[in-house]
């Protein structure tokens, strides 16, 4: 972790440590700022919240939302909630894993894409839905998935 990132993390912890249940807000803020939760932050959080390192690590490991490694250039999120499942998201996720060559929480070998699950994107009637970065795509077939990913590759 660079000195700049360490200072950024220290500022986040300092700002949020007084909140009730401060650990989750701190972890969210670190991931938003840095893109993942570096292992070096565990002792920093533990010290400031008077917790053991194991407790902090346990929370990071428990919540799949928190990445322990840097994400790829583009984060692909596939909706796995019920409405999208009934509209074919299970088939889409099998295809996506094969096409990208990685499982959920994994990153392609070229570091272009990280695959994540998400549970409802608020567009249930038009599933299966995915997000790539901040962009939402509806009615995503396997062909559409391929086109969307190809269009992002090397952008
Ligand atoms: S279930 Fe997928 S958007 Fe709601």
Summarize the structure.
With 155 residues, this protein is an alpha+beta fold. 47% of the residues lie in helices and 13% in strands.
Topology at a glance:
Layout: H1 3-16, H2 23-34, H3 41-49, H4 53-62, E1 74-79, H5 82-86, H6 89-100, E2 106-107, E3 113-118, E4 130-132, E5 135-137, H7 142-152
Parallel strand pairs: 1-3
Antiparallel strand pairs: 1-4, 2-3, 4-5
Helix pairs in contact: 1-2, 1-3, 3-4
The site of FE2/S2 (inorganic) cluster has 12 residues, from α5.
Describe the protein.
- With 155 residues, the protein is α+β, with helices and mostly antiparallel strands.
- It contains seven helices and five strands, in the order ααααβααββββα.
- It is 47% helix and 13% strand.
- Strands 2-3-1-4-5 form a five-stranded mixed β-sheet, covered by helices on one side.
- Helix 1 runs parallel beside helix 3.
- It is elongated.
- The chain binds FE2/S2 (inorganic) cluster.
- Residues 79, 81-84, 120-124, 127, 129 line the site of FE2/S2 (inorganic) cluster (FES).
| Sheet with the most strands: spatial strand order | 2-3-1-4-5
Q: Output the helix-strand order.
A: HHHHEHHEEEEH
| Inertia-based shape | elongated
Helix content: 40-55%
Q: Major beta sheet, specifics?
A: 5 strands, mixed
Cα distance spanning the termini: 26 Å
Give the percentage of residues in beta strands.
5-15%
Regions with little confidence, pLDDT below 50 for 5+ residues: none
Give the number of DSSP strands. Answer: 5
Highlighted features:
7 helices, binds FE2/S2 (inorganic) cluster, 47% helix, single chain, alpha+beta, elongated, five-stranded mixed beta sheet, 155 residues
